[in-house]
Write a structure and sequence with these properties.
2 domains, 374 residues, two-stranded antiparallel ribbon, mainly alpha
Amino acid sequence: MPFTFALALIPVVGLLLFIYFNDKNEKEPFGFLVGLFFAGMGTTVSALIIELIGGVALELVLPDTSILKAIILACFIVAPAEELGKFLIMRIMTWKSKHFDHSYDAIVYAVFVSLGFAALENIKYVFERGIGAAILRMFSAVPGHACFAVFMGFFYSKAKMAKENGKSSFGYTMLALIVPILIHGVYDAILMSGTAAYEDTPVLTGLSVLLWIGFLVIMFAGSVVVIIYSSRHDKRFVPLPEEPAPAPYQHTYGQPAYTTASPFQPTYRPASSASPVQSMYQTSATPVAAPAQPVFKPLQPAPTPSPATTAVAAAAVIGWTCACGTVNRAKFCTECGKPRPVENKNWFCPNCGAPSHLNFCGKCGTSKPESLNR
């Protein structure tokens, strides 16, 4: 029994790993995929109920076994019942999921849901019909369910991309449902019609087997092409959240020109155009008043001194020159003892520049500088 159970699940696990590792850009969360797989198992219940009801209704209309009855059962009851359940589960669980942000994700989701259905169905058939059925379904039914899901996921991703671009997703949504139903219906119709014609026309049964094998090869090849193409052209259709760009750095007396709402998430605030210094570093969302803008005045050029002022300053520093050539500041020459000449007692008023030989300026009344009284 363990060996039979393993034979039923080996193809399922192998196909799941193949699809999963072809997701090159961003692997989906393992727990999320496991949830999809078991939800896909649950669709076997709804499919069984619909197939029983549809089979009873079809038996009432066409009681005899015929190729037409087999085709109707395969294309209009079995295939829609199984594929519709898979699609609804995938739509409910993934359409608004935050993980559904790449185009290849849709194929991963569809295959995990579909192989969940195939796993439970395969266990049932293998335990009923033995190892021979397990080996046959390993190369037919189980990969077939994966192929139906590949086409479903391909158009499902197109629908999601159209929705994210602001376009109608209805057309691609219908294709994601109708195309797998058609492929599944043709797959089952070939098998069921051959079984229905087994007793009456063995030749038709042999042709149906050849047609079924050819259909399997084409379906498998097409699915592999879609998987490889979707994996290599996997792209993000949900943009990443934009991060605020920092304002140009401005130095404010040792303070950076941005604020932060928390110690871990900086929030940048551009400086106001009114002043180059308008922001301070703060640790709360409440704005903090910026420091007052210092007022700088340009330096004024020093006034050019008048000739009279220059002469007075020179006289105060240099003093007077004696006839012997000695420069003195006292009233008598330090070399020869001669008194300071009277004419050298003239001074220039530092206020108005007028010449004077008295203790006060005769023009403005300014007192004679102390340095000239020596």
